[in-house]
Design a protein that fits this description.
Layout: E1 2-3, E2 13-19, H1 22-38, E3 46-48, E4 55-59, E5 63-69, H2 70-74
Parallel strand pairs: 2-5
Antiparallel strand pairs: 1-2, 3-4, 4-5
Length: 75
């Protein structure tokens, strides 16, 4: 987790994680969505990259979750 509130006005936190393969990227993104909903959070405002499963972005407003395929994150 990175506090980006001092440098970005659009969000306060980046949550960044990696996965070994595209299937794991999708599974992690889906699990994040499910867990946030379970604890009473809202659905993401925007989801990008779920089709390619290389870099999924889940925008919740106050925080943004980035799920990278390991090779994409290395790049």
């Amino acid at each position: 987790m990175l506090d980006v509130s001092d440098v970005l006005s659009i969000t306060g936190w980046f949550v960044i994680t990696s996965a070994a393969n595209p299937r794991q990227v999708k599974a992690i993104a889906e699990e994040v969505e499910e867990h946030v909903a379970t604890v009473g959070g809202a659905r993401p405002l925007r989801v990008e990259g779920l089709d390619s499963r290389r870099w999924v972005l889940l925008d919740y407003g106050d925080f943004v979750v980035h799920v990278f395929l390991a090779e994409e994150r290395d790049y």
